[in-house]
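Propose amino acids for all 119 sites.
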């Protein structure tokens, strides 16, 4: 599975939300400066070539849909990120967020409770 660019991830988030969409529907859901229709169409076709998107043909028009779930993508790339940036250590990841004050003591306690429930 190839890593997606930021723009491709943005388009995938829209497709995960809509489940099935024509390029014009994806375009209407994009935030900020909207890409040209042809540019967006090219991005969607690239996603299809990478195996993230499939399509149904309606004459000359295609309706696109995700072929991978958001959860499957997230699992693959969170594991990759932890391996690449935190030496495969979830402890290092949590420590990073604690040091950056991005996670509270209450949230850490909730995580510990979740872990203990699974034992």
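Proposal:
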């Amino acid at each position: 599975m190839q890593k997606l660019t930021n723009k491709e991830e943005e388009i995938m988030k829209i497709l995960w939300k809509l489940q099935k969409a024509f390029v014009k529907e994806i375009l209407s859901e994009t935030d900020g400066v909207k890409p040209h229709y042809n540019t967006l169409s090219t991005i969607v076709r690239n996603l299809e070539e990478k195996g993230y998107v499939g399509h149904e043909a309606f004459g000359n028009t295609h309706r696109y849909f995700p072929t991978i779930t958001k959860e499957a993508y997230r699992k693959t790339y969170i594991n990759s990120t932890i391996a690449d940036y935190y030496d495969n250590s979830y402890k290092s990841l949590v420590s990073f967020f604690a040091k950056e004050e991005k996670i509270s003591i209450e949230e850490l306690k909730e995580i510990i409770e979740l872990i203990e429930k699974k034992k």
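Strands lie at 53-58, 61-66. The first strand starts at residue 53 and ends at 58.
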